[in-house]
Specification:
Methane Monooxygenase Hydroxylase, Chain G, domain 1; globular; disordered N terminus; alpha+beta; about 400 residues; six-stranded antiparallel beta sheet; eight-stranded antiparallel beta sheet; 11 helices; Beta-lactamase
C-alpha cells in the first residue's frame, strides 16, 4: 500500500490512500461506513487509515507490559436461555477481538473475523472517552481553566448561537439543551448531516452546521446523546492546547504510558480530528487505555490528569431513570459521566457496531471488545455484550 503525504504536523502526517487493495484479494470499501456490508466492515474497520484521511498517533520507545497470567479464564454463562462461551459469543456477535486484564495481566485474549493481534480496529465512539480524558490533561496543563467556561470562549464562531452560554461541562455530559437527532440509519438526521456540512469561509465545517441548531431545553437539564458536540469538544481542545489531538494524545498518553503500536485518528475535511469518533488502534492498546484510566491517569511516573479527575469523569452526572423492570432505556447503564457510560459496578467507553472498553475499578478488571455488528445499535446485541462482559469480569475475579 502506498500513500501520498499531504501535510505534516511535527511528527504527524495526514495520509490519503492512493491504492485500492487492502490485502491480496481484498478491495477496500468506500463511502459511508454506516452503509458497509458485513464483508466490507471486516476489511474497512481494520484498515480505516487506507480509506479515510488520518493523523498518526505516534508510540514511544517503551512498551507498557501486559503479561499473560498463569491461569487463563474461560467464562461460561446463560444468555436468553442459551448456554454461552467465548467462542460462541464471538461467532454469533461478529467479534474481532476480546481481551480481559486483571491486575494488569491478560487473563483472556481472542481474535476473530480474520483479525491478527497487530491489526488495528476502528474505535467509533470509544474515541469520545479519549477526548474527554485529553480535556482532563489540558486542565492539568493549564490550557483550560474551568469546565464551567462557555464553549464559545474557545470556539468564538459559536457566539450568538444556541451554544453561546453552554459550558464545557454541559458538552461533556451531553446536556447542552440544543436540539439534535442521533439516528444513524436516518440519512437526514443531524449525526449524518453534520459530517457532510458545507463549510463557510474560515469556519470549521462541523461548527458551521452546529451553530445553526436551535435550542430545545435549558442547558444542564436533559441528556441527549450528541456526537456533533463531542466533535466541538475536540476542536475546543485543539484550540486550547495549540496542537492537533493526535499530537497531544501521543504526548500525554500514547508515548509515556507505553502503547505498543502507532494509532491513527480520522480527520474532517479541514484536517481536524473528530472528537467523537474514529481512532484506530490494536486491541491490546485499547486495553491499555482502560488500564491507564484504572491507574488514575498516571503515565511514565507522571500524573497526566488532575487529582480526582478519573473519579469525577466516571461518576454519574446525568442519571437515567429506570422503567418498571428496573432497566433504563440504555440497558444496564445507570447514567453518564464525561463521555463515559456509567454502570452500577464500573464504566465504559462505547461505540457503534460493538466497540467497548469496560473498566471495573473495584475488581481491577479491564475488558476491551471490538466487533462488526450488522447494525450500528441493537438492543439484543447490546444485552449479549453486557452479559459477556459481566461473565468475563466475574470469571476474572473468581480466579484471583
Amino acid at each position: 500500500m502506498k500513500y501520498a503525504v499531504v501535510a505534516s504536523l511535527g511528527a504527524l502526517s495526514m495520509l490519503w490512500p492512493i491504492a485500492v487493495a487492502a490485502q491480496e484479494g481484498e478491495v477496500l470499501p468506500s463511502g459511508d461506513s454506516i452503509l458497509w456490508t458485513p464483508e466490507q466492515q471486516v476489511i474497512g474497520f481494520r484498515a480505516i487509515e487506507k480509506i479515510k484521511p488520518v493523523h498518526v498517533v505516534r508510540r514511544g520507545t517503551n512498551v507498557h507490559p501486559l503479561p499473560k497470567a498463569a491461569h487463563q479464564i474461560s467464562p461460561r454463562w446463560i444468555s436468553r436461555g442459551q448456554a454461552m462461551d467465548v467462542d460462541r459469543y464471538m461467532r454469533e456477535r461478529r467479534t474481532s477481538g476480546v481481551i480481559v486484564l486483571r491486575d494488569g495481566e491478560v487473563v483472556l485474549e481472542r481474535y476473530g473475523l480474520g483479525r491478527k493481534e497487530t491489526d488495528g480496529w476502528i474505535s467509533m465512539s470509544v474515541a469520545k472517552s479519549v477526548t474527554s480524558t485529553l480535556i482532563g490533561a489540558a486542565i492539568k496543563d493549564g490550557y483550560i481553566k474551568s469546565l464551567d467556561a462557555p464553549v464559545s470562549d474557545y470556539i468564538h464562531e459559536l457566539k450568538a448561537s444556541a451554544y453561546e452560554v453552554v459550558s464545557i461541562r454541559q458538552l461533556l455530559t451531553m446536556s447542552s439543551g440544543v436540539k439534535w437527532n442521533e439516528d444513524y440509519v436516518d440519512r437526514n438526521s443531524d449525526v449524518n448531516l453534520h459530517y457532510n456540512a458545507i463549510s463557510e469561509s474560515g469556519v470549521n465545517p462541523i461548527v458551521s452546521y452546529m451553530r445553526r441548531l436551535p435550542r430545545a431545553d435549558e442547558p444542564g437539564t436533559k441528556f441527549v446523546y450528541n456526537t456533533g458536540e463531542t466533535d466541538l469538544v475536540g476542536l475546543l481542545l485543539t484550540r486550547a492546547v495549540g496542537k492537533s489531538m493526535a499530537e497531544y494524545l501521543s504526548e500525554k498518553i500514547w508515548r509515556p504510558y507505553g502503547m505498543e503500536s502507532d494509532a491513527v485518528w480520522q480527520v474532517d475535511p479541514s484536517g481536524q480530528e473528530y472528537g467523537g469518533c474514529c481512532i484506530s488502534a490494536t486491541l491490546r492498546d485499547y486495553a491499555r487505555i482502560g488500564q491507564f484510566i484504572l491507574d488514575g491517569g498516571e503515565a511514565g511516573g507522571v500524573q497526566v490528569l488532575p487529582p480526582g479527575w478519573v473519579q469525577d469523569a466516571t461518576s454519574v452526572h446525568m442519571k437515567f431513570a429506570p422503567n418498571a423492570a428496573g432497566k433504563t432505556h440504555n440497558g444496564r447503564r445507570i447514567g453518564y459521566g464525561y463521555f463515559w457510560w456509567i454502570y452500577d459496578n464500573g464504566y465504559a467507553g462505547s461505540g457503534i457496531f460493538g466497540q467497548n472498553i469496560f473498566v471495573y475499578p473495584k475488581d481491577k478488571v479491564v475488558i476491551a471488545i471490538n466487533s462488526a455488528w450488522p447494525k450500528p445499535t441493537d438492543s439484543e446485541y447490546s444485552e449479549a455484550r453486557d452479559a459477556f462482559a459481566e461473565a468475563s469480569r466475574a470469571a476474572a475475579v473468581a480466579e484471583r
